[in-house]
Amino acid sequence: xxxxxxxxxxxxxxDSKLSGYDAIIDLTRKLNTKFRTAAETQEATRxxxxxxxxxxxxxxxKVMFSRPLPEFSxxxxxxxxxxxxxxxxxxxxxxxxxxxxxxVGTGHGxxxxxxxxxxxxxxxSVCINSCKVxxxxxxxxxxxxxxxxxxxxxxxxxxxxxGKTPDPVERDPAFATPCFVQCPSKRAxxxxxxxxxxxxxxxxxxxx
Length: 208
Hints:
Elements: H1 2-12, H2 20-34, H3 38-51, H4 57-66, H5 70-84, H6 86-89, E1 92-98, E2 104-112, H7 116-121, H8 124-142, E3 147-151, E4 158-162, H9 184-187
Antiparallel strand pairs: 1-2, 2-4, 3-4
């Protein structure tokens, strides 16, 4: 948590006055207000994820593991995610999921039973722009593995599927979700929640 917080502070140029997990959520909201567009927030978050690792590691993993050993790499990343990210997301477990080609990837998935990050942020746009899209992008572009994350906005669970290429945003149900009634940013009428923003040319975005 301390490392993640430091990297967020580096990206923002400012810290939170809060402590513990509350500070992570506060910094996340600040990240969503700092940038003019959703794409900028997503790229900043991808940069934070890269900063958590030695600069050489993602590229080396792509060359040494993802390309020659994709199935092993998917299982390894699923296991590592389940073991190291529960402080951020809450209890989770490795499971079997559908992957590209309609096959079943044994041990390729991580089921987050009730995402602490999503529940405490209380904002669908924070989930999309500060978690789902940048994490998928980080694994695909930097680690060389396709990843689809499927948040459930009814029960706050989330399914990670390593080895499954994300659907285009216009077909992804997560992008058709208006923000939650209890969204704190929407209630406060701050710019932190502008609804789910689709890239230009993919149709109208759902608004809060």
